[in-house]
Design brief:
With 215 residues, the chain is mainly β. The protein contains one helix and 13 strands, in the order αβββββββββββββ.
């Protein structure tokens, strides 16, 4: 949570401090699709690894300020939480018997980015850094353990094309790639044996469209 607050404060300071320099302000909404081949590993007394393909479509709102011709900075936010499906695992071991359920929420997603336009072409390049809170919601009936929350931080790059309708509205389409840092959470409680879950390979292609209002 602290990282996302610091990112928000830094962005607001930049936007307000440079408002006198800004030539244009923009506000917009976007929809993005992505796909990962994520690998999860669980380590306790033994280690287990599992790889799954994860796909998602999500929406964002964003604000931009054009500080110089063809150069803009912006902040993009997801105004809702992303909830994963609930995973259930029934344990039948004599020592640890019961049903475990795990569900994860992604909250307060925010990205700070810069955008560079190629003059007189409509083509642009966008690079950003994002942060979000990864909230684990578990019910470990077999061991009564709990897992801590974590930060989900990522780097993003995209190549896009913007079409100016001539009515103060711009339509954008872009393709890119996102790469998130590895995430690791460790359990506490239960039988006192720490259990660590690590997610790697959180990267993949993205494609998105946006509607932008220019002022």
């Amino acid at each position: 949570m602290l990282k996302i607050k610091n990112l928000l404060i830094a962005t607001v300071v930049v936007l307000f401090a440079t408002s006198a320099m800004a030539q244009t302000f923009r506000i917009g909404i976007s929809g993005t699709g992505t796909k990962w081949d994520a690998t999860g590993s669980e380590t306790q007394q033994t280690s287990e690894t599992r790889t799954e393909e994860v796909g998602a479509i999500y929406g964002q709102i964003f604000l931009e300020a054009e500080l110089q011709e063809y150069f803009s900075v912006g902040i993009s936010m997801m105004p809702y939480d992303v909830e994963s499906e609930t995973s259930t695992n029934a344990q039948t071991d004599k020592k640890d018997s019961g049903t475990n359920t795990v569900q994860v929420d992604i909250q307060d997603y925010m990205m700070l980015y810069v955008m560079l336009e190629v003059p007189d072409t409509g083509v642009y390049l966008k690079v950003g850094r994002s942060s979000a809170d990864l909230i684990t919601n578990e019910s470990m009936g077999a061991t009564s353990t709990t897992y801590g929350d974590a930060s989900l931080d990522g780097t993003h790059g995209a190549l896009g094309y913007a079409y100016d309708t001539g009515y103060g509205v711009i339509l954008r389409a872009e393709v890119g790639v996102s790469e998130y840092d590895d995430v690791s959470v460790t359990s506490a409680g239960g039988d006192g044996t720490a259990n660590t879950v690590t997610l790697t390979g959180l990267d993949g292609p993205t494609a998105g469209i946006s509607i932008v209002k220019e002022f």
